[in-house]
TrEMBL record:
<dbReference type="GO" id="GO:0000149">
    <property type="term" value="F:SNARE binding"/>
</dbReference>
<dbReference type="GO" id="GO:0051601">
    <property type="term" value="P:exocyst localization"/>
</dbReference>
<protein>
    <submittedName>
        <fullName>Exocyst complex component 3-like protein 2 isoform X1</fullName>
    </submittedName>
</protein>
<dbReference type="InterPro" id="IPR042532">
    <property type="entry name" value="EXOC3/Sec6_C"/>
</dbReference>
<comment type="similarity">
    <text>Belongs to the SEC6 family.</text>
</comment>
<dbReference type="Pfam" id="PF06046">
    <property type="entry name" value="Sec6"/>
</dbReference>
<dbReference type="GO" id="GO:0006887">
    <property type="term" value="P:exocytosis"/>
</dbReference>
<dbReference type="InterPro" id="IPR010326">
    <property type="entry name" value="EXOC3/Sec6"/>
</dbReference>
<dbReference type="GO" id="GO:0000145">
    <property type="term" value="C:exocyst"/>
</dbReference>
Amino acid sequence: MAVVRGRLTPAYPAGLGAFGVYLRGYHGALAEWLGASARRRLPLADRYALLHWHNQVYPREVLGLVDMVALENGELGPLLSPGTLRGLEDECVTDVKAQTRAALLRVLQEDEEHWGDLEDRPGSLAQDVCELLEDHTERAPRISQELGERMAHCCLGGLAEFLQSFQQRVERFHENLGIRELPPDTYISRTIALVNCGPPLRALAERLARVGPPESEPAREASASALDRVTRLCHRVLADLLFQELQPHFNKLMRRKWLSSPEALDGIVGTLGAQALALRRMQDEPYQALVAELHRRALVEYVRPLLRGRLRCRSARTRSRVAGRLREDAAQLQRLFRRLESQASWLDAVVPHLAEVLQLEDTPSIQVEVAVLVRDYPDIRWARDPVHLSAPVPRRKHVAALLDIRGLHSSAARQEILAVARDLELSEGGALPPPRDRAFFSDIPVPHPSFCLGLPLALGRLPLSRLARPSWACLPLRPRPPSPWRPRAQR
């Protein structure tokens, strides 16, 4: 057409409109050829090429270089009708849906065959999935925005199905008793590789949802849910393996030897620090989640023997020694998890709080410390000392257990302290329980019956006006920084 315009058109009389005749002939021939091609069952790659040439190349590289008067006057019709174009796009989406689902399943099966291998091999599952889907999601928008949105929605649906299948296979992998016989290093490496599939696939799902139409949201949520389950399961497995190794050290806590020797905590810190090196191979997002969960679980296992009453304080001197040991251990654990880059700083204060409750002597100070403890760790459970009332005796709770351990036998003082915890809890009556990654005391059951004194009815309901009750506004402000979810592994 450029040659016609530059060489032939000047040879015709100006009023004849020779170039328009050539342009309409050329355009008509193209329309006829493209129509015939569209009626054939073209391979997917050829269909992409046809649509791209029709929508992008022809307007830009042909019509864009010639006199547009004929086009502007409506003398040139479309090369392909809107119905034909829509049909070609529908065929593309249908073929991509079928081809990608089959290809994703094949990639997953091939990768799964190597999960039980003794040889450690770098995994490429997430990369293969991303490349497979991005081949389509990058080509379609170059044809039209609408096709790009439809293709993103199609690929996101396929990705959601793939991730649900991936989740089921990961669950079977960890349930397989034969897999458990793998060398620990191999098992850990394979589990880390499965976790590392999460971030790139999650990012892909988010990207497709942004490009796709609003109805893509359910598929995005399904993808995120499947990846969350895989991450939580693998974290639980890794944490269980680690805490099996740590359990002998935790069993030495809160005993007489623990008061005078750092051996137990040194074993815990040394094992955690050494094993954490293997976890560094995990991508940053799941690593941060896991190390925060290890932080939470380590503190739970540290506090558990204390609240289970393994050690009882029968004098102020013993309480002071226990509180001092708790503070030293808390500082050492805090230094460890800072080195491991844990962001669960909300855990740092729990053991110092318990130490304060054990060591403080006057009831108002203990009330304030218990109130701060209940405020900062809302899953802690309070309990009234049972009295001679018709109401059933409450189950044992953590604050009451702590008072038992410190040897507080004065029923009046106990009621004053427990009333503070009770009132603070009741004041937040409709509050939701903390999320799983912020649970602490709810993971520490306290099964034994709480301290009990047979009290006359007159002492059962001491008026609150007689109690040393601090104002909540006077409590020290200790904001809890947000911590990202850190699931931990437990098998």
